[in-house]
Amino acid sequence: MKNYQVMLTKSYVVTVEAQNATRARYCAEFYTGDISDISIDEDKKQHGFKIKEIECVVNDGFEAKEIIDD
Question: Where on the tree of life does the source sit, at the highest rank (predicted)?
Answer without folding.
Answer: Bacteria
